[in-house]
Design a protein that fits this description.
Elements: H1 3-17, H2 28-121, H3 126-132, H4 137-192, H5 196-212, H6 214-248, E1 269-271, E2 274-277, E3 284-287, E4 290-292, E5 299-301, E6 306-313, E7 319-326, E8 329-339, E9 346-347, E10 352-356, E11 367-373, E12 376-378
Antiparallel strand pairs: 1-4, 2-3, 4-11, 5-10, 6-7, 6-9, 7-8, 8-10, 8-11, 11-12
Helix pairs in contact: 1-2, 2-4, 3-4, 4-5, 4-6, 5-6
Length: 384
Amino acid sequence: MSLAGIFSVIFLTFILALPIYATNTPSIDTLKQQQQQVKQQRQDVVKERDRLTNLQTAAENRLDGLQQNLQTTDSYIQDSELRLSQANQSLHELETDLAMAEVSYEERQVATVARLRFLQRSPANQGWGILLQSENISDFISRRHQLKLVYQADRQILAKLNQQAKLINQQKTAVEQQKNQIALIRQQLLGQKADYQAQAQSQSELIERLNSDRLALEAAQNQLEQDSKNLAVLIQQKVAEAQAKANSNSKSVIIRGTGMFAYPSDAATSSPFGWRIHPILGYRRFHAGLDFAASYGSTIRAADSGTVIFAGWYGGYGKAVIIDHGNDITTLYGHTSELFVTEGQGVQRGQAIAAVGSTGLSTGPHLHFEVRRNGTPVDPASYL
């Protein structure tokens, strides 16, 4: 109903409520009372008008916010789809190059093996036989030079084959790395589209690949190490941004940690911090955090009070949270399935901040927990 309609209803109500005097003039007290009623009703109408105006303004603000979030999400989705398309194109090119390299290697290998087998079946003194057939010293030297060239050519062919084999292995690793990148982009894209069933299927397929394919796992480990190095820069940037925001806004408060860390999960630890022999790859790799063998969906808690400086998707870490506790100390919680906090939010020690998952480059559900000083990983066991 419009404001004019509301005034009409109130006016009619007032008219009907007036007593009918056939012959008597209303008293002054009665008129004052009626005047007071009209005044009160007018105030009620103004309040109702203001309430409706406020509701309309709030609804318009919410609509603007929803539209802006929708535009941002659509932009993210378009960006992810573009990166996915580019990654698929890159994968196709890598696989084409790999196929050509394998064909070339196979042809060289077949020819070289056939030649070596022929030489193996030849008499051991064939080289000497050729030299002894020389007619003079000059012919002897010439034949010996030709034999040396043949042997050198054979060694060069074998060296090229060896080099080509290494190149093929590098190309195979690059292909697996690109597949991992595509899997990460697909996970992120499906998460943005809220298609949880498809996201779970994509994540399950990635876990299966990482657990069964050595090259895929090696490529994943390489990317995680690179993401870990890049985190140092991201943390320093986010801490500086939070500090600058606090300095520019007197009402902004940065929550500092207590200095006493609590365990972020109730689960037992499964992989320690530091250098270790990888159980599948078989050689030393650096593990920048502490893993907790927590079940999917279980609660992840803030190890200490602080301010969330990052909450979102970060490469091989998947959905991750980074908390700044002050004094150059930050904590990271990776591979989560769901985030309960947002960037800029203050959290208290022991507060639920996320749920355990297996997003990113992960071989199964677990919590990857890191403590960093000035962006550099340090042993979490020293703080827990």
